[in-house]
Amino acid sequence: MIACLMMDLETDQDRVEFRTLYEKTVVRFLTIAKSILHNQEDAEETVHDVYTDWMKNYAVYKKKPFNEMEALGVVMVRNKAINLRNRKEKYMEDTTDDVDILSKKATDEDESMLDGIVRQETIGEVKKAIRGLTEDEQALLKLRYELEMSIREISNILHIKENTVKVKLQRIRKKLYVELKEVPGIAG
């Protein structure tokens, strides 16, 4: 992670100073982010975002003493982690209680995977299968089908590429299909 960021720095002195700052702060920042997010991958992404922000304005930040930079970093990591957690939680509320996402009209791209899957008598099995997904997978389904958001809208909200959203949704649908294809009343 650090090597990619440092390539944008202009001088060797800046690279040495940034590496030192990184080495002295990364463990603390990751610990803070993980304590808020409870997810290593999200914590690493949050910390990476802070270092990326620093790189964009390194000419300003490098003039600050280390203790100010560390304090600023702690605040930035905390705020970014809380924002990420809140965004994810916002779309997770009541997912398992009122999820009827697969019975909604599927779009053309979804049609082949979902064609004829859901029957009224099997809603309980579908909800059970959905509850077996990870929180992130449930959130994606809720955004796409319950809230009827476009791929682009989901991409913007979650700060991931549109193609990543499509791939994740395809994998989730396949996982549900595999889980549900043996259930009586569901077309396979």
In a nutshell, what does this entry contain?
By secondary structure, the chain is an all-alpha fold. The chain is built from ten helices and no strands.
**What's the tally of helices?**
10
Strand content: under 5%
What structural category arises from helix and sheet content? mainly alpha
How many E-type strands? 0
Average pLDDT score? 77
Q: Which radius of gyration do the C-alpha atoms yield?
A: 21 Å
Poorly predicted tracts of residues? 94-109, 111-120
Q: What does the main sheet amount to?
A: none
Element-level helix/strand string: HHHHHHHHHH
Kindly state the percentage of residues in helix. Answer: over 70%
* Backbone shape: elongated
N- to C-terminal separation?
44 Å
Structure, described:
Helix content is 70%, strand content 0%. It contains ten helices and no strands. It has helices at residues 2-6, 12-37, 40-56, 58-61, 66-90, 108-114, 123-131, 135-146, 151-158, 162-180. α2 (12-37) runs antiparallel to α3 (40-56), α2 (12-37) packs across α5 (66-90) and α9 packs across α10 (162-180). The longest helix is centred in the first third of the chain and has 26 residues, at 12-37. It is elongated. The protein starts with a helix and ends in an 8-residue tail after the last helix. The relative contact order is 0.09.
Any chance you could write out the topology, listing elements then pairs?
Blueprint: H1 2-6, H2 12-37, H3 40-56, H4 58-61, H5 66-90, H6 108-114, H7 123-131, H8 135-146, H9 151-158, H10 162-180
